[in-house]
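Researcher: Let's do a round of design. I'm pasting the structure tokens now; please hold your answer until I've finished.
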């Protein structure tokens, strides 16, 4: 499928959601992000029980209007249709991109891990819409054994991929390094802690948009 992606891809990790007042927090956060102009958001919860994932997904979809904000869920392709999400991100150990595509059909977004030191062999021949690369810098948000690839790694992977594929740079990116990562070849910047650990995530998102143009 053909998707138009924004420059900034916020990832809301469940570790950034307070355990008490969870529903109200997500409702207010979602509303403020929609007002700030967020058009793509990933919800990632690798440790929560099914009931928690489903409750979060329901609140986020209600707070972030379909048609205005595309919602991606990490791993759980089986929940996409149920909660009206727009796609799924799958990594090694999850469904393959091909399996996710068969399950979701041609009109949903399927993203996957594209590589760190080098592109995953054959990954560009899959049906994924975008390929995450990294971690670019050290990150506290997601557990990974992979070493940071730095800006030079982003440049190297863009050279390997060629100009067409959508590459999402992920891992430890801040506003201070965002422009450099884009210049090195990242189509999109995935940002978690740099936005959601701020007192005003929606305001921080606006600042990123203004800075990146």
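Researcher: That's everything. Go ahead.
Model: Designed sequence:
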């Amino acid at each position: 499928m053909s998707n138009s992606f924004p420059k900034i891809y916020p990832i809301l990790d469940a570790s950034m959601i307070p355990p008490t007042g969870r529903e109200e927090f997500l409702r207010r956060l979602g509303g403020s992000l929609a007002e700030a102009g967020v058009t793509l958001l990933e919800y990632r919860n690798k440790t929560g029980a099914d009931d928690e994932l489903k409750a979060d997904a329901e609140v986020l979809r209600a707070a972030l209007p379909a048609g205005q904000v595309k919602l991606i869920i990490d791993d759980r392709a089986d929940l996409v249709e149920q909660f009206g999400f727009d796609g799924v991100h799958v990594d090694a150990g999850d469904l393959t991109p091909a399996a996710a595509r068969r399950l979701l059909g041609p009109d949903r977004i399927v993203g996957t891990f594209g590589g760190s030191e080098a592109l995953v062999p054959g990954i560009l021949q899959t049906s994924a819409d975008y390929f995450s690369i990294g971690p670019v810098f050290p990150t506290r948000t997601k557990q990974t054994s992979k070493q940071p690839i730095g800006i030079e790694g982003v440049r190297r992977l863009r050279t390997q991929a060629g100009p067409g594929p959508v590459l999402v740079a992920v891992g430890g990116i801040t506003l201070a390094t965002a422009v450099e990562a884009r210049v090195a070849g990242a189509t999109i910047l995935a940002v978690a802690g740099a936005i959601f650990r701020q007192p005003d995530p929606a305001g921080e998102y606006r600042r990123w948009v203004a800075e990146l143009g």
